Amino acid sequence: MAAGGAGGNSGKTYSFKVVLLGEGCVGKTSLVLRYCENKFNDKHITTLQASFLTKKLNITGKRVNLAIWDTAGQERFHALGPIYYRDSNGAVLVYDITDEDSFQKVKNWVKELRKMLGNEICLCIVGNKIDLDKDRHVSVEEAESYAESVGAKHYHTSAKLNKGIEELFLDLCKRMMETAQAEERLKGNGASQSASSRRGVQIVDDEPQATPAGGCCSSG
Amino acid sequence: MIRKMFRRQVELRAYWRKLKAFVKKLSLQRQMMENLIIAKARQDALQRKMEERRLRLQEEANRRFAASGAMTAEEQEQRTLYTNVLEYEQDHDWPKLWKANMKENPDDVTLVSRLVSYLLSRCDHPVVKLLRKHQYRVYNGLYPIVSKGLPQSPAVLLRPSRSTHNLLHPETKRKSTNTVSSGQGFSTSLSLSPSLSHDLNTNYDDEEEEEEGEEPHTQVTVDRENSFEDLEQFLTQLDLAPPHDSTDDTGSDAELTCDTSMLKEGHIQELEMRAMKEHLKAIVKDVHIAIDQLLSLCLLSFECLNTASSKDLCLASIEEAFFTPLWSALVALFRKVNRERERAFETSMKLYQDASPGVLGVPSKLFPPEPDTLQGSYPYESAVQELKLLVKDCCPQKKLECIVRTLRVICACAEDYRCLHEVDSAPKTAAIGADDLLPILSFVALRCQCPQLVSECAALEEFIHEGYLIGEEGYCLTSMQSALAYIESLHTGGAYLPADKLI
């Protein structure tokens, strides 16, 4: 089951949830398919196809389980965003470099995410379709300076040419791990005495988001 | 003379016989006394032994919990429970055998589920006793609310009246009698509630029982013993009966009824809703605490289950046992709280029941161009059929699996429909992403014609284990929630529900 991401004996396993945001035709589906399967043309990917994908990684000796949640980009579903991105560790916001509007949409999402989730979520702004650079309508400078101004990282990718995607997700994972570790340290200081209150039973009650599959944290 | 002598002898013999009998009786009595004394001594010894054992086990439990000074009430309770477990294990061999079996076959994954289901079938095991205790507690919390007052919305779907009581063991029935008769609120609400049909409306009174003879008597017994079945009857009526008048409400609500005339109807409803939401919150909390406790005790009883994967399996079994008899009552409360959302869903459902997938934003390549090609059926019918099964399951985990299956069927259907369009062209790259999935799912949920889905999903959201919410199951549930919310907003023509309402 997908929930089996609990920390094993040999080191810790991180489970991260990443939401994928972007307008309908920016190519976010192709992007994530490229990343998870690296088979641009495969017709039988997973049971849920490109909507929900998982990837297992090993970063500096630590296991990472990545769950990538695609969201619907259409305006009619816009109001439903929050139920998708709650509890996310990261967000990948995709726009099409040939489409000014799609970049505008990304800006709206950034605002919303910051408002709802604060600074705990790692944001990646991704300009896709760099294979169509000759039709570029969003300048590199504009995009990069915007990303910096909102505390996000900016990447350029091409799903078609499989460029920049691996780097994007690896970078995002590292950042999410850092955030999770910082959170753990913070928790570790305060939780040392309360941890003894439930000895004998290994209940991982208030584990940080990074390892939600502790097994019995249904009290939340 | 001879005759006289003879008579004497006869008399003497009779005396002698009496004397003998008396002596025999005396010795018998003495023997009995002796036996009694021996028995008493034995009993005392046994009791002492039992007491000693209890103390020993208590100490063992204490050691196990490594007491660090002060003990909370919760710890105390857990310790007592663990003592009970140890005691049980002294009297029964099977836990030892299972533990040994688990040790010998650590790779046998089926063993965990088998052990847990065996454990849950042992009615006298502390884990099962605790399970029943929590179930009755939650059930008692639900009963007054659910049995009283009916939702205004005439639900389309008929709840299958399956009697859940037979899932419980006969022992628990006896226990249920105790619980029910001790909770007075239970019986009063039973006899007074206007939502009852005449056959249940018998007064809960011993004298009357006798007067009215056989039939009502048996019914009252049914009320008291098969409380789950009884509740089931309410729930069936909940879907069938028309909205009832609030003036003839239960006795406990007498004051409230008086106030109704003085205060605005809307205000009362608002207050009622707020109280109901609070109640729901409390119930949800109780359920979580119960499941936590059950899992803890389970893991204490069988340490071998305390690994990540076994724990998940164990939890799944506990949840199934816990929720199955309670789900219909739980969802009834959720339906009351989510009445407005269900109504909105219903309005949209009526407006859009014949809408084509395209109206909901499904791209035309993902459904057949003409309805005729499907021969009397409609697009994504298999997914609709799958989703309709959701209300029939009684355990959150199974319902969640049903949602996952629905989404998988959708993806498979979409794939097929696309192939219909692309017979000549080379296969396209794009697989189904959320942009396609959500409109299709909305279409499927709409065709399902079951407003109860709204409450079912709201309940799932509360009860599904957090660990599942990040994975595929969580994604599917979230998508379902989104689709339902979208449908609810459909009839208002684009004015969406505020996002924070859904969180």
From TrEMBL, chain A:
InterPro entries: P-loop_NTPase, Rab21, Small_GTP-bd, Small_GTPase. Coiled coil: none annotated. GO terms for biological process: protein transport; Rab protein signal transduction. GO terms for cellular component: cleavage furrow; endoplasmic reticulum membrane. The keyword Protein transport applies. One of its GO terms (molecular function) is GTP binding. The keyword Nuclease does not apply. It is a lipid-anchor. Its main location: other. It is found in: Cleavage furrow; Endoplasmic reticulum membrane. Keywords: GTP-binding, Lipoprotein, Membrane, Nucleotide-binding, Prenylation, Protein transport, Transport. Pfam families: Ras (PF00071). Residues 190-199 have a biased composition (Polar residues). Residues 184-220 are annotated as: Disordered. Belongs to the small GTPase superfamily. Rab family. PANTHER family: PTHR47978. This is Ras-related protein Rab-21. It comes from Seriola dumerili.
UniProtKB/TrEMBL annotation, chain B:
Residues 177-186 have a biased composition (Polar residues). GO terms for molecular function: guanyl-nucleotide exchange factor activity; small GTPase binding. Residues 339-496 form the VPS9 domain. Residues 162-222 are annotated as: Disordered. It comes from Seriola dumerili. Pfam families: VPS9. This is VPS9 domain containing 1. Residues 204-214 have a biased composition (Acidic residues). Residues 187-197 have a biased composition (Low complexity). The lineage of its organism: Eukaryota, Metazoa, Chordata, Craniata, Vertebrata. It comes from the Eukaryota.
